[in-house]
Amino acid sequence: MARVFVYGTLKKGQPNYKHMTNTAKGLAKFQGRGRTVEKYPLVIAGKYNIPYMLNIPGTGHHIAGEIYSVDEQMLQFLDEFEGCPDMYQRTLMRIQVLEWEGKGGAGEARAAADGVLECFVYSTATFPPEWVGLPYHDSYDSSGKHGLSYVLRESR
Asked: Which of 29, 53, 61, 106 lies at a CB distance of 3.0 to 4.6 Å from 138, suitable for a disulfide?
C-alpha cells in the first residue's frame, strides 16, 4: 500500500471523489486530514477550472487535503487519471497530519506520532508561466467562493 495526499477534486464531497470509492479501480482507504509541510501555490486554472498544486516549494500556502492508503491498482488508476507524468507528476512530499483516523501497523503509528508522513502528491512542474500570477488558495472546494466551477471530464 502507498500513501497518497489529495487536495482537489478527489477529496470527499468533491466532483471526482467517486473514483476513490470505486473498488473496480482499486482500493483507497481514508486515513486522515493533513497539509503540506512546505508551502506551495494551489491555483485553479485552464478552461475546465482544474486545481493544480504548482511544484514551487516555499511559495504560496500550506495546502490542506486528505491522506489515503491505496493499493497498486488504485495508484495506477490515479497516475492515468492525473495524466502522470505529462499533466501532473507524482512526487513524495512531507505532509503534516492534522487528524488521523487510519489504523495500521506500528510504522504508520510511529510516522503519525511525530506528525509528519511522506505521501505521494500529484503536483505539476509543467505549467504555463502565467499560472504563477493566479490567486493562491490554501484549500480547494469546487463550489468555493472563488466562483470557478470545475468542469467534469464527461462534460468537456
From this structure: 61
What is the SS3 assignment for 23? helix
pLDDT, tens digit, for every residue of 5-29?
999 999 999 999 999 999 999 999 9
pTM of the predicted model, to two decimals?
A: 0.92
> For the purposes of burial, counting CB atoms within 10 Å of the CB of 44, is it exposed (0-12), middle (13-18) or buried (19 or more)?
buried
Task: Name which of 52, 54, 36 is nearest 44 in CA terms.
Answer: 52
DSSP of 64-81 = EEEEEEE-HHHHHHHHHH
Task: Report the catalytic residues.
Answer: 82
Conformational region of residue 7, where left means phi above 0, alpha means psi within -120 to 50, and beta covers everything else: alpha
Tell me if residue 90 falls in helix, strand or coil.
Answer: strand
- The string of pLDDT tens digits covering residues 46-84 is 999 999 999 999 999 999 999 999 999 999 999 999 999
Q: Which amino acid is at 147?
A: G
Give all domains of the chain, ordered by start, each with its CATH number.
2-128 (3.10.490.10)
